[in-house]
Structure prediction request, 486 residues.
Amino acid sequence: MSGTEASISAAESYKDLREWLSLVEKAGELRCVDGVEPDLEIGELASLVCHSRNNPAVLCDRLKGVEGGYRVLLNALGSRRRLSLSLRLPLPEDEVHFVRLWKEKVKTISLIPHVKVESSPVTKNRVMGKDIDIRRFPAPTWNLHDGGPYIGTGCCVITRSPEDGWVNVGTYRAMLHGPDALGFYAEPGRHGRLHREQWWKQGKPCPVAVVLGCDPLVFIVSSLNLPAGTCELDYAGGIKGEPVETIEEPMTGLPVPASAECVIAGESAEGDLLAEGPFGEWTGYYGSERSPQPVIRIKSILYRDEPIIFGRPPIKPPSSQAHTQGLLRSALLWNYLESAGLTGIKGVWLHEAGGGSLFSVISVRQKYPGHATQVGIVAAQCGVGIRNGRYVVVVDDDIDPADLEEVVWAICTRSDPERSAQVIRRSFSSPLDTGVLPNAVHSSRLVLDACKPYERIHSFPQAVKTDPERMARARKKWGFLVSPKE
Ligand SMILES: Cc1cc2nc3c(=O)[nH]c(=O)nc-3n(C[C@H](O)[C@H](O)[C@H](O)COP(=O)(O)O)c2cc1C
Prediction:
């Protein structure tokens, strides 16, 4: 495969993961490797390729001990080009440009109901009853201290409310408990968990379908925090501009994407618990102690020939996963700020090193005294993009919020802690918040105004900046003296 850069764009359409992979391969962004060990080595490979932005996707085949053709795809969405392809966006110039494009697109999305089709390659193979052995599929142990193999990391968990029929798709990790059982770890407030509780209240087990690998767009929406009552399949249709095709999963009757590579269907009954975790989480820590968690008893598996499973382990930040979350959520935060009536916002970026959630930078053109603080405080209290966000830095519009070094320069030269820092106490938290005491329900936020002080905005020392045209000329003439990165 050549590493040459070809372009893929919104104009390129695809119908499933395999067509998507062909486009990615054409663009030089796919590598294939054989013989990776699913026990830890695959986690090490994932750490390597997912450590920084814009590395290629890696398709692992012939994993040790796994039938050839049963593949795991790593780092699928680890570049803004692949993310743009999946979201049907034009190719962006840089991170903030992507955020701008996605932010505008989000405003136009209206739900398009999914449509049922009669056939899909995923129905080619079906196992049921005593023939079920999920261990045939690659189930990696990603980290040294994980509580077991996790087959579901980039999965889409589909449930239906028994009360009003609302179909939800969410990404919740799935640990392997044996040949026919999977963990079903959904944090409080997750919609799949809500559905599960509704079934249990009626004294019935919750039917559930876990999709391992499908159109990357469906995975993206599965991990977006959409409002309760929204069917993510219909939201994906809104992004595509045409309905997502689904088939009816025969055991549960749930709609599952026709693009699915593998669908595990089963039931989760109240009180049916097994020890689950710990698991290396997106914060860079083992997120939770081993604890009893609900189980899915598998009744049926559908799969394509040579299925491709999405491997999406959380990597210690910075990571391409955090980058993807940063790209997606920065747009939501930006829209939130504008919908709150705030103007002058020139860029928003949730940094990878903060897991795409905990450290946000917003650039503004200051219009009035207090403008920067106002933007920072509204952002710090916003649950849309940054549920347990910790630090919000506001910079002037000459600073690129996605360039951490420029941001640090602005902090160091334009702010003064005593004047510039505001602490918001008793804010909301999450169970994965390592910075507060175990089981604390509150955390605090720091808002840092790293803009030029408004009262000195016109007399502030002039920044030493090189003229871009002259600099381009110098680079052309003298560039051989520095490493390519510089
Ligand atoms: C790769 C990945 C793994 C995730 N794993 C979990 C998980 O194990 N449990 C959980 O509650 N949320 C997890 N999340 C977050 C949820 O998927 C996300 O909040 C999603 O919006 C939940 O859908 P819901 O709002 O329909 O419940 C994960 C997100 C990603 C991107």
